[in-house]
Amino acid sequence: MFGAGREYNFTRPNEKGEYExxxxxSSTVFHTVLxxxxxxxxxxxxxxxxxDLRDTCDYxxxxxxxxxxxxxDLSALLHELSNDGAHKQFDNYLEELILPIMVGSxxxxxxxxxxxxxxxxxxxxxxxxxxxxxxxxxxxxxxxxKLYRFFKYIENRDVAKTVLKERGLxxxxxxxxxxxxxxxxxxxxxGGRSEVIYNYVQRPFIQMSWEKxxxxxxxxxxxxxxxxxxxxxxxxxxxxxxxxxxxxxxPPQVDELDRLNAPFSQMAPNDLPD
Length: 274
Description:
This protein is an alpha/beta fold. 35% of the residues lie in helices and 19% in strands.
């Protein structure tokens, strides 16, 4: 905990060379952790937050596992242990399954990657003349029932996002989407146009980028001119400060119909009808 070779170097000496520990840790949790130094086991009483206990164990370099932690709330304990297991498991999936696809996209000059995870039993049979009209042709397909089962849990998807962020990737999206596998039937539209109806299955997907600013030009960005015909009073109020200078140099033009429809009390002498 106090060594200079620690990966994250949790503790640092102050000006006097003293180490200040347990900062931000509640007295109740710290008192519970002290049992470890007496018996080698932490008996967690009811009311103690397992995530807080986990953070304290990480800070004090105490192994957080079922041999060390004994508590009544098995659900919270197993949740933390599952997060550890998911982190290690996804590290392996990333190196063995996902990274080769990302490297292949990078070699083609791509800056991002969209991967759909199908099961080993899934088959994709698209009509060559009428492919799905939703851009699926730009998606990479990964056949892996193991990764499919891993992504079924939203908690595992959250862990996977954390791992990808730790590895420096950007614009990460992981979720479940419908993916077309094969055509079901063909409809004939008026004029002889054909429409293919596809069968869609719900499968996990991963989308990520290795660029800092996805979709933004690094050269010239053309300015978008705001429309002045706003009807939202809140938006108009926000734009008043920006528009005052414009109105000083470019006074609004008064349409003839506006003059005729305006009450006499709001008209200037020159605007009164003859």
